[in-house]
Amino acid sequence: MILYHLGVGAGALDAGGGAALHYLYENAGFQVLPSFAIVAPTFHEAAVPSLEIPGCDIDLGSVLHYDQQVEVEGPISRSGEAVLRSRVCDVFDARDASLIVREGQAFADDGRLLWTVRDTIYVRGEDAAAGQSRPRLGGAIPDRPADVTRSFRVLPQQAMLYRLCGDRNPLHVDPAFAAKAGFDKPILHGLCTYGIVLREAVDALFGGDTEVVRSFYARFAGVVLPTETLVVEMWEEGRCAVVQAGIIDAAGGPTRPALANGLIETSGSGR
């Protein structure tokens, strides 16, 4: 868990020269970001990830990670065992592509639901037979300036740290592989950006208390590169928070989208 927190940017020194030890030190009121649930099942994997969906023959080259959601039933324990049950729960049409929604639920030994994760993959060149469009998810940006804005400079080694959490896709470390995929250099994992944004929001809005968060949804809107600077904008909407993240244009142009439609629901938001 500490490695995961380092992978999503915990440990940067604040203005007073200190770090957020509750992410990094087991004797300092240690807490776990809910997004850890996404990587927990494959945390110790060392192989290149594969995409296996029963009944589907999918070319990995045609797949993009479209969005991600995590819902926790309570604080994630620092230790323990769980049983994970996975399924494909929906398929939607996206013109010349399909959106396949996958779900994983973790259960404790006594049958209690611990957490639910859902992700959507965008598969180019595949048409959904049902022809249904995906309902709009996430938060709508309020018509006012952000209540809180924070920035985070992605470390040169950020992707190399995050890949130790179980995602060994060479796209994030191998320049030759990245070039074949059409990128000038290895790119940051989308789920790393997702974790960074959640951590920044928890620190800014909830005083670092991860136990407040019950769910976090966001859509991946753009590529993030190591050394770039993320700007995270946040709006407090009752017991929810709407968030989005962009990349500062080094040439002085408009911010480039990175994460969109972000919505954080808290323990008092009606779940």
General description of the model:
- By secondary structure, the chain is of the alpha+beta class.
- The chain has one domain (2-266): Roll (Thiol Ester Dehydrase, Chain A).
- The protein has helices at 2-7, 36-39, 158-162, 175-180, 190-205, and strands at 63-72, 83-93, 97-107, 113-124, 148-153, 213-220, 229-237, 240-247, 256-266.
- It has a 9-stranded antiparallel beta sheet with strand order 2-3-4-1-6-9-8-7-5, with helices on one face.
- The longest helix has 16 residues, at 190-205.
- The relative contact order is 0.17.
- The mean pLDDT is 88.
- One of its GO terms (molecular function) is 17-beta-hydroxysteroid dehydrogenase (NAD+) activity.
- This is Putative (R)-specific enoyl-CoA hydratase.
- Residues 1-125 form the Peroxisomal multifunctional enzyme type 2-like N-terminal domain.
- One of its GO terms (biological process) is fatty acid beta-oxidation.
- Residues 142-240 form the MaoC-like domain.
Summarize the structure.
With 271 residues, the protein is α+β, with helices and mostly antiparallel strands. Helix content is 14%, strand content 32%. It is globular.
Cα-atom Rg, whole angstroms?
18 Å
Number of helices: 5
The CATH H-level superfamily is Hotdog Thioesterase
Class based on secondary structure composition and strand pairing: alpha+beta
Distance between the termini: 26 Å
CATH architecture assignment name = Roll
Largest sheet: 9 strands, antiparallel
- Total beta strand runs: 9
Binned, the helix content reads 10-25%
Domain tally: 1
Widest sheet: strand ordering? 2-3-4-1-6-9-8-7-5
Which outline best applies?
globular
Percent strand equals 25-35%
Compressed to H and E, one letter per element, the order equals HHEEEEEHHHEEEE
